[in-house]
Amino acid sequence: MARIAGRFGRVEPRASARAYLLGLLSKTERKNCWQLAEQAGHVRPGPMQRLLRYARWDADAVRDDLRAYAVEHFGTDGGVPIVDETGFVKKGRASAGVQRQYTGTAGRIENSQVGVFLAYATSRGRALIDRRLYLPERSWCGDAERRRAAGIADETEFATKPRLAWEMIAAALDAGVEAPWVTGDEAYGQDPQLRARLEEAGIGYVMAVACSTRVRINSGRTPVRADTVAGRLPATAWQRHSAGSGAKGPRHYDWAWIHIGTDGHRHLLIRRNRTTGELAFYLCWSPTTVTLAELVHVAGVRWSIEECFQAAKGQVGLDHYQVRHWTSWHRHITLAMLALAFLTAVAASTASDRRARPHPPARSLAPNPNPMTVPEIRHLFAASISPPAQSAARLLHWSTWRRRHQAAARHSHYRRRAADEPAE
């Protein structure tokens, strides 16, 4: 709050913002204005509603503070920005940007809003650092009355999702965020303009594309489908690499890469599931020569944004809002992202402290607890800001107990996964 307090000109919205953030971090089941007002001890939801709709403060300025906070607390030289979208299923037609459209949240076409997000992932943590609400062209951009009712400014024009993604990437670069790589899913990898802008900026990318994507092999005149290229590869072209550690151990896949284009910095990367044989494809470009392992690492980082969405919705109420106004949406989303970044920063700090402590004797039978996670930290923080039914020592006892059992379960999964791996 000390970091963002200067963004609020009056004490009332500043106090409401603090109460709102505490509510997002609390055990409150639904984190909307009514529930958060009750959690804060207010007699009515008016202060929370004014914070989101009428109070004078700039959500984009708070977003800038959030981005700087994230980079400061868990940024490293190897940080990777990730672009993706998530849906917010809604009822009615008054919410800004709502229409019947496909959303991966529901896995089908639903009446929903779609937000395009930028995450920042490093070895120390990951968090959402920027957001844009997608405004459909036909149903919204050309309807002045509907725009006015939802509080959408006249100067807000239609922008494709890849265009919104580039705006966020460019803003992060302008703010000094170091980004040697960018990654994203097919909706963004298929857009040639986004890829061209990244190349112009000297930013490498590993972007997922469809199997029908056509590429030129060995400077051939006729482009070939990516899945056709994969089918022609010899067995020796595939190498086993881990795309990073998951909840149950390293995520091993078979990988192949093929030079495409006229220079040595452009590749088609192919991932093959070692159990099902399912293929995934990525277009890659880098300003310098890279290894297959580096491309695999960046491809694996892309899933971090899905973890961010899961944590933001499950822990800090990213999708719990009940607002229709354009400004209110951006304000709630920004505060939820800030709450998530706070939890991630605490997790990064406790991980650093844990590495600095001496290891217990090898003869100890009890496994070391897992590192503090975002859900565990929110659980402890929520308990500490509410009148505790248990002592702090009791809370920490149960935290250690849970994390020890999580560590034992993870060890069991890793051991089973290692036993299933064929010998090198």
TrEMBL record:
- Transposase IS701-like DDE domain location: 7-234
What species was this sequence derived from? Streptomyces pimonensis
Q: What superkingdom heads the lineage?
A: Bacteria
Tell me any Pfam family this protein matches: DDE_5
* Coiled coil stretches, renumbered: none
This protein's name = IS701 family transposase
